[in-house]
Design brief:
The protein is of the alpha+beta class. The chain has a domain at 16-151 and 205-238: Alpha-Beta Plaits, CATH 3.30.70.3000. The protein has helices spanning 33-39, 48-64, 93-111, 138-167, 173-180, 185-196, 205-209, 235-239; strands spanning 23-30, 68-74, 77-82, 128-135, 211-218, 221-227.
Length: 243
Amino acid sequence: MAKSRFEYVRNYEQDLSILPNTYIVIRVDGRGFHKISKEYDFAKPNDRRALDLMNVTAKSIVEQFPETLCAYGQSDEYSFVLKRDCALFERRQAKLVSTFAATFTAQYIFRWPQFFTEPLKGWLLPTFDARTVIYPTIGEIRDYLSWRQADCHINNLYNTSYWTLVLRGGMSEHEAEQTLKGTNSSDKNELLFSQFSINYNCEDEMYRKGTIITAVRERGKRRIKEAHVDVIGDEFWKTCGFP
């Protein structure tokens, strides 16, 4: 290959590799999804179409990259856990981050018409960014997924209470915010039940627990499974078969 006197600029490139023999978590997050949800009229507090779109997009990623052990998603984020011995892109951080963010964005846009009748607008397209975190053992992976599921519960309970006050209680958004200020989980559960006859524990499990996607071997074939279960307790970890 011919060289030029300008080729020296390649020496400025950084090619950081992720520590070997560690689990890699790639968390993909929606960029500016508050505007997306408002412009495309997402239902409050949860839009089933939007969550199903996130899930089918995530499953396509798990299918495409067999190095993925599992994925957990809620709202506009998804975390992909890569195996300890993953050698994808020689574990180069920039390649992993850019590939997962770009692929997730492309699949999300491609699959949008399956769930929404309103076409996307060129001036406001959904996009996703990504980051990587590494963990040494499956114990930290369990705690990481537990953290994200706890976050899902906290956010969904608040959003359910908030939008119920607005949509069914007739409050302004400011009034709902002030009503919930300083309340704990028990207060919000009591508010929903006493004022609106809503038993939060009977709400859709996907809204309360998020979605866990696993890739398992069955009769020699790799199968992708979606579930909405507790990942904080022991039961999931007894049966998941993770190394």
